[in-house]
Amino acid sequence: MSAQSPAPPGRGPHADLEAIARRGRLLVLESTNAAGAGHVGGPLSAMDLLVALYLRVMRVRPAEPDWEGRDRFVLSKGHSAIGLYTAMALAGYLPVDELATFDQAGSRLQGHPDMTRLPGLDASTGSLGQGISVGVGMALGARLRGLDFHTWVMLGDGELQEGQVWESVQVAAQYGLGNLTVIVDRNGMQQYGWPLRPGEAHRGDRRDPLGEAAVGVALEAFGWRVVEIDGHDFGQIIAAGTAARAAAGGGAPTAILATTVKGQGVSFTSGASAWHARAATADEVAAARAELGEPTP
Amino acid sequence: MSAPQRDVWADTLVELGGSNHDLLVLDADLATSTKAEKFARAFPDRFLEMGIAEQGMVGTAVGLASLGFVPWLSSFTVFFTHRAVDQVRMSVAQTGANVKIGAAYAGLQLGSAGKTHLDVEDLAIMRAMPGMTVLAPADATECAAIVRWATATPGPMYVRLGREAGPAVFGPDYAFEPRRVIRLREGSDLLLVSTGQQTARTVEAAELLAARGIRAGVIHVPCLKPLDADALAEAAAAVPIVVTTEEHSVLGGLGGLVAEIVTAHEPRRVVRIGIEDTWGESAPNAWLLDRHGLTAERIAERVLGELARGVRRP
Question: Residue A176 — left, alpha, or beta (φ > 0 → left; ψ -120 to 50 → alpha)?
Fold first, then answer.
């Protein structure tokens, strides 16, 4: 399409990951366009975290998804499924072309992750708050089995409103599960949000699912190790992940609070709550492709 | 009398735990009530206290099961089938996780705990869940056999465990088979179908009816799902009327199950005895059984009344 010039190639130590994440963002938009449904905002806010986890941080063998020694990953915010599938495709778990089957009848790529369909998924999620508990079981099981893999669970910040999350926060601390790391994709938005406050015109302004709650302080009070990062800075993501694994023997689970932007990476989805659950049109895919500097197919 | 099923459950897990090192018990702070404390004392490293947090407990069990452990969960029936039902549904049943739900304090006899704890809907809920095996032993012997079978057999399972001791139904040669319905008594005038600890009272009701010259067959259903529906349909087809009895609502439990099967084959009149779409209450066990028509005497009276109304002969 385009008379526009492609985005400049990334520079710096993580230019390769940045390029992969740009491609991932376009694939998310293309997949929701093909499906005519899906979520965009959450997958895009989580894309850099997912790309860093699958390509740098986690110990995985995409060609051997059932490898016993693999790190476990649970996408507790299961509605970001297409983001996860995209990162897995870019890591080699499935063909990139298969992303076009997302949400279609018979697809391995269900609207929410279904571990009975797609090898490499360690849990089925979708009803919020459950994934962290499954992750606690994996981390506890690793200790009982004497296995040294690490368990990673990604939560949304809106998901922290679920009571079950805090049940498992307590259990992980009680059992000293240093081999468990929770990453909170703190994109600051949820679907509908709290009641409007004075001065706020519409619910799209609702930018903080957690209100004034100091989540990091709360997690530390429960005995967790808390790290706050920019969830779009690959250097910070990789450093936090590496440090979390290194701290596994310390007896405190780690929470990485990653500040992100919902819909990050594409101008018209970025920070726009309307893109929480909405498919991209063909024109929007084309515009995003130009912006991201991705080649026309 | 036969020992309380909660004790039998715990004792059997202790017995199995000696050789099965994958066997775990997770508890939501009710171990003294459910008797899981016996396992905690025998195998402290494989007893995992999860706190007063049933939803998290169910999810944690799924993670443990993914590593080849066989987690049994300890709590009250009502907290699995109501409070944590979303977790049981999505994380356990939809994934086929090898998680065993030890649903203690099932049925009516909870020792006056009242309507909050008295779960009259559990069978209806668990039976409707694809992939869930639903078990309700009659006595201590069958309970031990079911706990052994459930531990050795992969897949999600829900096991109803009574709090109180009850009459023995089976002898030491009993062997559990999934799907099987068990014929306890022959009789051509009607068929009584029962499950769980209600079966002993149902057999007793058949004896009371025999003294009145009425020949009642009795079938016990220890495994509501999966089920040998053909065997049940065949037994129903041989009598003019079927009467179900259960410590459960008459909606959706054993009565619902039998009605579904019988109406799909050769229809017979099905009378469902149980809790009539109402909540329980705090009262002595014997009072509750009488109130809901589940004592042997009340079942016999009800059958006599139904027979007096007349039945269509096949």
Answer: left
